[in-house]
Specification:
about 280 residues, alpha+beta, Tumour Suppressor Smad4, six-stranded antiparallel sheet, five-stranded mixed sheet, 13 strands, about 25% strand, disordered N terminus, phosphoprotein
């Protein structure tokens, strides 16, 4: 199920969801946009990172029909605190070595090998530049339209636009050994805030281990099989800032947070969900 439809050359595609579509397949809407690019250094901060009425909210993709997303009952009371920081923390790893970090304040971004002035309406995050003769550079040269990422009050969502095979791991990964591969041009939910808050509340009450909040994308030269043991050339780790912050809280802060992890109102009155623009 693809959230895109083709236009003429230079087309703009959009994955838009509203609360009324949450039980329906992904629907598209074509929009126009014009250009700009920026990059946020790791550790920067902005008030725009908090939840907003225009938060981007793509729906989970077809991968999420697998357990545990399907049929897993989550209490509607377990929601992040209202002032949560949904900025995206990124770590870039080449051949097992950390080569860069970034913090993205905007709610949508595109991971690309080279910035483009023709793409706009979305922040572009450029992969760190490897040496020209390194295998990593050959792989990055195939990144083309890159990968879309949305980080918002509902969780983390990605959409693979490039031809490179990308496997993923996340706290709510489907059962089985994997690898779990991202489908092409489909918006896939990899992290859900309500599951994290549920497990966080249990942890604060001494009823379970600390929840995991990190999503990992592995970029491959060729599609890996079940017995694949080689290390990927490129790895991107991503995490929402609010989740990392809550896991580092002191016991005193944990008690205060536990009282805030509650219902913020009727979900049907929530603001419209987000849109992700891509060329």
């Amino acid at each position: 199920m693809s959230p895109e439809r083709e236009e003429n050359a230079g087309n703009t595609k959009n994955c838009i969801l509203s609360p009324s579509l949450l039980q329906d397949p992904l629907k598209n809407e074509e929009v126009g946009a014009s250009g700009g690019a920026s990059h946020s250094d790791f550790g920067s901060s902005s008030s725009s990172s908090s939840s907003s009425s225009n938060s981007p909210e793509p729906q989970e993709g077809t991968d999420t029909s697998e357990a545990p997303f399907q049929g897993d009952q989550v209490s509607p009371e377990l929601l992040p605190p209202p002032d949560s920081d949904y900025s995206l923390l990124l770590t870039f790893i080449y051949n097992g070595h950390v080569v860069g970090e970034a913090q993205v304040q905007s709610l949508d971004c595109r991971l690309v090998a080279e910035p483009s002035s023709s793409q706009c309406g979305m922040e572009q995050v450029v992969f760190p530049k490897p040496g020209p003769q390194e295998p990593t550079q050959r792989l990055l040269s195939q990144l083309e339209r890159g990968v879309l990422v949305a980080s918002n009050s509902r969780g983390l969502f990605v959409q693979r636009l490039c031809p490179i095979p990308i496997s993923w791991s996340a706290p709510q990964a489907p059962p089985g050994p994997g690898p779990h591969l991202l489908p092409s041009n489909e918006c896939v939910e990899l992290f859900r805030t309500t599951y994290f808050c549920r497990d966080l509340a249990r942890y604060f009450q001494g009823l379970g281990p600390p929840p995991k909040s990190q999503v990992t994308l592995n970029f491959w030269e060729e599609s890996p099989g079940p017995s694949h043991t080689l290390q990927s050339l490129i790895t991107v780790q991503m995490e929402q800032a609010f989740a990392r912050h809550l896991l580092k809280e002191t016991p005193e802060d944990q008690a205060a947070t536990l009282s805030l992890v509650q219902s913020l109102g009727d979900p049907s009155s929530s603001p419209p969900l987000c849109s992700s623009y891509f060329l």
